[in-house]
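can u do me a favor
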């Protein structure tokens, strides 16, 4: 925003009256200014200073009246920079010039007189944590679900690097100016990889600067491919996810003559519990679904008597636990489960970052609680595919999917494919998780296809039983970056 603002400022200042305070005030004073400005034909005021009122006609400044200024409640700084004033008070970003918003896909300045309402200050998509849970809310259909917010954010940030104008604004409004962490992959335990597969005949059309940015900022691997089939892409994904995710791309997709590139972010962990469950303690137990059904599930059980590998929280509304994974590597990864005492789907609808922060604040380790804990939590294993394109459009990212409106000119030259515009035809997000006595295996892939055309610490319980639907989070224990999140409505059945 800063560089763009400075450039426009240089243009606009050639039209803005200067040294007005030194001029005499007469009828249509602007005609006698040096340089002079014509008198306006109408009285539509777009700017006012202490000398007079100003309008714009035929793309040029003009003076209004005899020079006595009126106070403008709707004045904003952005007029001088070539942007309209916002109608609302919703602030998206602030820089040295002032507060900015976005309306109708365009930047606008927040009015000087603006006092944001309570609702306008609560844009949930500008908050990183709320973005992480946005897909839980949008696809809240009482079914097992898993996805990786971190993988989605990597993919969107890489797209944003190639976007300009409204396309950039829409992505930025959804994810904000987040700085993504750089993690180092650890063989067979932790993997985070970004890559771009480019069809060989289009390789020269992808901007070199964009490719270099992906390499430097996202450690992206650049692959030139004939796109005769999806084998190379799928093998890359399988390698980066320890074989957990396979065959995410179909052959028919890459064979499309208009298919130019595939942008991928892959993430996987194979984590062992710092203190594992014992298989011989696993037994059948009752689990109560959101719909009132009683099912027999595979319940894992372990007793914690010391150490800080298990922490817990309980109040009248929720029960929560955290357990450490891969205790011997960095970053430290932890698993969190949150079971509301009432309906999980209703809990998800109203979930906020403040609730997670409250639980974090009052988590109690076994040592701190000074009481042995017996944890009962069921096994689960499933995979899930987000309706990612639909969800992103629900978050306001629309133009990038429109073959006429998409503006990815920092990614691909606009004259590619005989002048046809470059756009994103589809996005795919697939994730899989295995939660067992030994630990957690989880992986996720985000792919985009580019085409032309409350209270104090709780009382320490003796037993914590997850026997109702619950949500989970797998995250960096220190930085709190969420790698995976999801819901468990039906764990593994005992008979299976």
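np, heres the sequence
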């Amino acid at each position: 925003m800063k560089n763009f603002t400075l450039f426009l400022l240089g243009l606009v200042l050639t039209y803005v009256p200067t040294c007005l305070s030194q001029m005499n005030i007469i009828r249509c004073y602007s005609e006698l200014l040096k340089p002079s400005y014509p008198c306006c034909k109408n009285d539509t005021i777009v700017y006012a200073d202490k000398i007079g009122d100003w309008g714009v006609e035929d793309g040029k400044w003009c003076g209004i009246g005899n020079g006595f200024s009126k106070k403008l409640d709707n004045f904003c700084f952005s007029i001088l920079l070539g942007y309209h004033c916002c109608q609302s008070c919703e602030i998206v970003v602030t820089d040295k010039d002032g507060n900015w918003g976005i309306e109708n896909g365009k930047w606008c300045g927040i009015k000087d007189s603006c006092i944001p309402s309570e609702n306008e200050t609560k844009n949930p998509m500008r908050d990183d944590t709320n973005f992480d849970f946005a897909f839980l809310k949008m696809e809240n259909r009482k079914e097992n679900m898993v996805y990786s917010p971190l993988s989605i954010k990597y993919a969107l940030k890489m797209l944003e690097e190639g976007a300009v104008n409204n396309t950039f604004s829409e992505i930025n409004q959804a994810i904000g100016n987040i700085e993504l962490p750089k993690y180092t992959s650890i063989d067979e335990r932790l993997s985070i990889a970004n890559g771009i597969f480019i069809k060989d005949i289009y390789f020269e059309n992808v901007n070199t600067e964009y490719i270099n940015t992906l390499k430097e900022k996202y450690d992206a691997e650049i692959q030139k491919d004939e796109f005769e089939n999806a084998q190379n892409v799928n093998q890359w994904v399988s390698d980066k996810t320890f074989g957990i995710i396979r065959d995410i791309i179909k052959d028919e997709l890459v064979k499309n003559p208009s298919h130019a590139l595939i942008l991928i972010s892959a993430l996987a962990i194979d984590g062992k519990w710092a203190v594992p469950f014992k298989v011989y303690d696993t037994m059948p137990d009752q689990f109560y679904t959101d719909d009132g059904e009683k099912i027999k599930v595979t319940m894992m059980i372990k007793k914690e008597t010391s150490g800080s590998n298990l922490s817990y929280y309980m109040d009248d509304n929720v029960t929560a636990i955290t357990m450490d994974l891969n205790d011997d590597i960095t970053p430290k990864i932890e698993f969190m489960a949150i079971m509301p005492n009432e309906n999980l789907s209703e809990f998800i609808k109203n979930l906020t970052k403040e609730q997670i922060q409250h639980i974090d604040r009052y988590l109690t380790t076994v040592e701190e609680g000074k009481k042995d804990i017996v944890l009962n939590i069921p096994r689960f294993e499933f995979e899930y595919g987000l309706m990612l394109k639909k969800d992103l459009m629900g978050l306001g990212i629309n133009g990038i999917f429109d073959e006429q409106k998409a503006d990815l000119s920092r990614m691909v030259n606009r004259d590619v494919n005989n002048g046809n515009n470059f756009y994103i035809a589809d996005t795919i997000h697939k994730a899989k998780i295995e939660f067992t006595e030994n630990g957690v295996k989880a992986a996720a892939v985000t792919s985009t296809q580019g085409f032309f055309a409350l209270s104090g610490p709780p009382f320490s319980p003796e037993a914590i039983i997850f026997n109702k639907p619950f949500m989970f989070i797998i995250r960096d224990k220190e930085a709190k970056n969420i790698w995976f999140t999801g819901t468990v409505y039906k764990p593994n059945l005992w008979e299976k």
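The radius of gyration is 28 Å. hope that helps!!
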